[in-house]
Write the structure tokens for this entry.
Amino acid sequence: MPQKAAALKFVILLGFVSLCADATYEGARSITGAYLQVLGASGTVVGLVAGFGELIGHGLRLAIGYLSDQTRKYWGITTLGYILNTAVVPFLALAGRWEVAAGLMMAERTGKAIRTPPRDALLSHGASQIGRGFGFGLHEAMDQTGAVMGPLAVAAMIYFQGEYRNAFTILIVPAVLGLIVLIVLQFLYPNPSDFEVEIETDREEKLPRIFLIYLGAVAIIAAGYADFPLIAFHFQKQDIASGQTIPLFYAVAMGVDAIAALIFGYLFDRTGISILIVAAFLSSLFAPLVFLGNTQLALLGIAFWGIGMGAQESILKAAIAGMVPKNKRATAYGIFSTGYGLSWFLGSALMGILYDRSITALIVFSSATQLLAIPFFVWVKLHFSTSSSVPEAITSQDTI
């Protein structure tokens, strides 16, 4: 099989694994808050569990990325992460206390932290044959398809069965299916790094300095990107959408996310870093529409929010694959995920405070951060060559 066709098949199969995983844990996450309340947890507990879970989910990736590169056990670590990420979800149906449910939720977030850096490194090898933007964009599109399917399946089970426990049980199906495909995939492609041609810079032992500048731009964007729970809170408080229609807004965002990932991935392969500038500008438009508009304008704002998410989950990672030597890539993705997650966490906390004091201040902060990232992307563009897939004129003095 020609390399390009084999690489495309590899990316699609890995994307299917992510689709099943997202259907499993996003399906669960759509009701875990309500489930904890049913089990007797307080609002404070729910907030702490959710926040601490995200902190684990991003913070642990720093160590996992480094460990993956040092051991070269990319498949083994990825498999362990997916097992923990998805296999624990159906056991939520057996949780009789909120403490048990909270522990399982922490385990699920830990699994996601373990599998993400090595998975992204593996994906980058296959994407190198078909276009990194397209490869990561296709993966994100499949990923978000699962993120829509899971909550819809859970909603259907609750509608017909009326209990959260039955909804968790149905998630056994995507969990098992995804793990079967993952196991088969590593036998079919034991060394995905063979897809990527070895080049001189791959022997560089340090990460390029341009990566640090790029990470700064990404952190700025993440800090000002309002999380959906805050948006949903605003919709409920201002009667922009009801409790029944808010999930539909989220489904729209996820659908736009999937489409945007494919489009931006395609454009990244043809225009390079420049498309990140466009994505940052479009992201700056969501806050005023979401927080100041009526239902129709809020829906348009959600579409821009989804566009930004699609770009962030696809081309931001695709760009890293062209900057960093492949033997350091899992480390880079671990650093990226940790920095992104920490910045998102701090920015979300600040925007929650700003919301209670001044929605205008929140909008200014959110939009300004997206626009502030643009000069950083311009700098990276001037020092980055997507045609060669490596930074331009990187010397030993340009590493960190």
About this structure: Residues 98-130 form the longest helix (33 residues). The longest strand covers residues 384-385. The mean pLDDT is 84.
